[in-house]
Amino acid sequence: xxxxxxxxxxxxxxxxxxxxxxxxxxxxxxxxxxxxxxxxxxxxxxxxxxxxxxxxxxxxxxxxxxxxxxxxxxxxxxxxxxxxxxxxxxxxxxxxxxxxxxxxxxxxxxxxxxxxxxxxxxxxxxxxxxxxxxxxxxxxxxxxxxxxxxxxxxx
Amino acid sequence: xxxxxxxxxxxxxxxxxxxxxxxxxxxxxxxxxxxxxxxxxxxxxxxxxxxxxxxxxxxxxxxxxxxxxxxxxxxxxxxxxxxxxxxxxxxxxxxxxxxxxxxxxxxxxxxxxxxxxxxxxxxxxxxxxxxxxxxxxxxxxxxxxxxxxxxxxxxxxxxxxxxxxxxxxxxxxxxxxxxxxxxxxxxxxxxxxxxxxxxxxxxxxxxxxxxxxxxxxxxxxxxxxxxxxxxxxxxxxxxxxxxxxxxxxxxxxxxxxxxxxxxxxxxxxxxxxxxxxxxxxxxxxxxxxxxxxxxxxxxxxxxxxxxxxxxxxxxxxxxxxxxxxxxxxxxxxxxxxxxxxxxxxxxxxxxxxxxxxxxxxxxxxxxxxxxxxxxxxxxxxxxxxxxxxxxxxxxxxxxxxxxxxxxxxxxxxxxxxxxxxxxxxxxxxxxxxx
Lengths: 155, 434
Fold this sequence. Notes:
The complex is a heterodimer of chains A (155) and B (434). Chain A has 155 residues and is of the alpha/beta class. Chain A contains five helices and five strands. Chain B is of the alpha/beta class. Helices cover 25% and strands 16% of the residues of chain B. Chain B has eleven helices and 18 strands. In chain B, the strands form five sheets. In chain B, strands 2-3-4-6-5-8 form a six-stranded mixed beta sheet. Chain B has a six-stranded parallel beta sheet with strand order 12-11-13-14-16-15, with no helix packed on it. In chain B, a hairpin with a 2-residue loop joins strand 17 (404-407) and strand 18. In chain B, helix 3 packs antiparallel against helix 4 (161-178). The chains are: A alpha/beta (155), B alpha/beta (434).
């Protein structure tokens, strides 16, 4: 299966960390990975990258919109992963980057989250690990419906 | 982890290659603006870099839009000029880069070519280079360190046309070996990431082999590609198409907290007035109906009395007091980008949020590169709730301020980002922000 994953986020340090983890994991899987970047019109604009994962010969791909700070303007029926669609409780909002990263590992097959969990364990980031593990093992109700309908899979 | 971001790739190149002078436009957000270049515009910084390279220093500059540039003297240390837009005038070798994984190689090649032919080399990069990630690799860089030196002849012998052509022949020999141009691909694009582009272009030099390139371009790059390629090839360009790129994305735009344009327009905006600026900020130009021209254009426009009010909002560093005698109309708002204590004839404003509509010539306390911080704003939630009930909060939509966010049905102010410019205070219909 091929995926075009669009990332956008405004907390640059966190964005940099989670994007690197995700790219690293996909590069160590069976996917061919192409990376693209979009321009930032002002120094405070969201970072935005496109990651194309090629896992099959087909020309078609699935779109995933990974929106760490809820800044994307999306109108179509797509898979839009945001703190809002994850139904993230207010008390763990600050760990949203890890929750969203966990969700991505759950949705995309054949990529291993071992490197992320290893990093979080090694750095004793207990809360982050808890959030990451929780969201990499289940999907919110709204997101599960969208994924099942668009991907035709039962997650 | 063997994944690096653009910033890490560029800073590694700069530190390994021992550059003496580094200039970067504010918008790059990579290194900030070095103190030594504070308030100095791109054109003047380019002159400083170039003359520094003539004195055998190794220099590099990052420009949003490289000013037109003609090298007249030989450089000695290596001079790389990186630009985000295609240069429309080609008077020195130009290399093109669209992919971050080839960027270190292209920078090394640019440095080598610049050192060998003793001329500056321009590297035009697409949006794909900055804010991207790449699998890291071990790149070999030129670690040479040269002490600055200058001879009496350095500035007395201008390059002759023969010398220049000779340099271009050497450059072509080097580049055709290191970064060969692929002319087989007729469908090229500079901004579309999945299409290819030529590797380099040289002025005044033609090998006679290739004389026609057919290019399919989109609306945005139609003009610039034609100008660049027609300097070297016979170009046949197809009709512009407005196809949406696979990777393009609609994202909410944010202005810098304390953006002087935001503050000015929230207080003073008048629909019938024509606004001009010499500050090239893509986000601000997109949000406000304002024309991007140099100050000299504004002086020309206002050399007689006009039928409409005109306002120029620009950099204090690009103002010259000689212009005063030439201005017959128009207001000038200068943004203090170089910490001037005063400018003759201008009313200096201390607090940016205080009204100054009575003055024709105003010196604002800061500009985009040195935004000042005042006391942060605070919110009264009981009043703010009423505003949310009516529509999406206007303080967010109208200001696009990065310090404001809307979460869990609450407006939040990020105290770390808020500069206290009070643009949101002016806009809030319920006086909930103070």
